[in-house]
Amino acid sequence: MALKLFRRGKIWYIRGTVRGIHVYESTKVADKASAQRIIKAVKSRLIEESISGHAAVVTFGEAADAYLDWRGSDRFLGPLRHRFGSTELREIDQPQLDSLAKELLPKALPQTRNRQVYTPFIAVWNHACKLRWASAQQWIRPRNPKGTNVPRWASKRSGNKPVAYDRATTFLASMSPAPAMLMLTLFYTGLRPIEAFALAADDVDGPGRWLVIRTSKTGEPRGVPMHDVLVPMFESLLKRKNLSIDRRIFRTPRGKPYGEVTDGGGGLKSAIQGARRRTGINDISPYTGRYSVSTQLVVNGVHPYIKDQILGHAADSMSRHYTNVPQAPLIAAINTLPVPSAIRALPWWENPLGWAGRLAEGTGRRTDLLPRT
Predict the structure, then answer these.
(1) Which alpha helices (H) appear in the chain, and where do they start and end?
(2) DSSP 8-class letter at 139
(3) In terms of Cα–Cα distance, which of 46, 55, 58 is closest to 84?
(4) CB neighbours of 44 closer than 8 A, spacing ≥ 6?
(5) What whole-number distance in Å separates Cα of residue 226 and Cα of residue 362?
(6) Which has the least CB within 10 A, 35, 82, 226, 358?
(7) β-sheet bridge partners, residue 11
(8) Of 182, 186, 233, nearest to 206 (Cα)?
(9) C-alpha to C-alpha distance for 247 and 257, rounded to whole angstroms
(10) Burial 66-101 (b: 16+ CB within 10 A, else e)
(11) Hey, how many other C-beta atoms are within 10 angstroms of the C-beta on 324?
């Protein structure tokens, strides 16, 4: 049956078959002349698909849908879908991506453009490559020009600088045990907070000192080494009885899973603010752990490729793109992070799960983290 237009309400739809490929879709327009132009474009696309295969005509919108179905993140995808949604993957090139980034964020720093445009785009593209809808391509990300060292005035925000591990330990000691355990994990893995929130029991291998992040910012699953100091804590938390219902490891003191990081902390926001009041330390936020891990690994002389693989940074060069470091060197590198003696002196250290529901002094129902009688 040839392609035909028909109306449903005010919108024109297309239905029919071209060279054995059936289609039934909305034109999303109410004007018949516009609908007739669309049906011609659809017919051309179906003919091309019948000759070259579906991969030849997959649009960015279709690839984005597949990426989201695969549990990819939809953060920052909206503007990309708006611009490239109906564009076939094969038609998108580097200049188009660069142009969109400049249009959306004309005054932004390169790292902001990278985070909000290039990273989500490349995540969708890489997933399309897995489905054989696109060919592997080395997309060029924005970066500051070499030799650029001009200071830029910007509002100061906590969490975008590293802190010493002694200072971090003082901060954690003032928190309720549950958020303190999550923050401790961030300081000894370099995970993004949202990755830690989603960490499930099946993703933790304590004896192997290994964590698996199923859905990362770059769209690729990755392995993360676990510092030895975290092993007894995870062993305790993995005994949580309701893991059969919800596999997520970390919970609030009330036993509920943490939400996404939004507006400076998400599910950790209250715990962070409380610890700041109690300690006077105001330069720690959920992302501080990641900055501290990155900086300390550099100070410890860890090779940049190993550091970047631990942190899950996207590969910017071809040599890095094809470099995969085995687990043993990654575990050895993460274990170079310092462990202040005060960490093992925390009141919940011997029984993390048993203390997980208690609260720090000044937090709701006052318990002061004292042993229960």
Answers:
(1) 32-52, 60-69, 77-84, 94-104, 110-113, 119-130, 165-173, 177-187, 193-197, 231-237, 269-279, 288-299, 304-311, 318-321, 327-334, 341-344, 352-355
(2) P
(3) 58
(4) none
(5) 32
(6) 82
(7) 8
(8) 233
(9) 10
(10) bbeeeebbeebbebbbebbeeebbeebeeeebbebb
(11) 9
Question: Residue type at 122?
Answer: I
Reported as a single tens digit per residue, the pLDDT across 7-17 is: 989 999 989 88
Matching residue, tokens 């045990």: 177
At which residue do the structure tokens 């290039």 appear?
Answer: 118
Tens-digit pLDDT profile for residues 170-204 = 999 999 999 999 999 999 999 999 899 989 999 99
Residue with tokens 């002349």: 33
* Rg value, the chain, Cα: 25
CA angle 312, 316, 317 (to 5 degrees): 120
Contact 258, 182 (CB under 8 A): yes
Q: Which helix (H) or strand (E) holds 22?
A: strand 21-26
Residue 371 in tokens: 């042993």
CA distance 267 to 179: 9
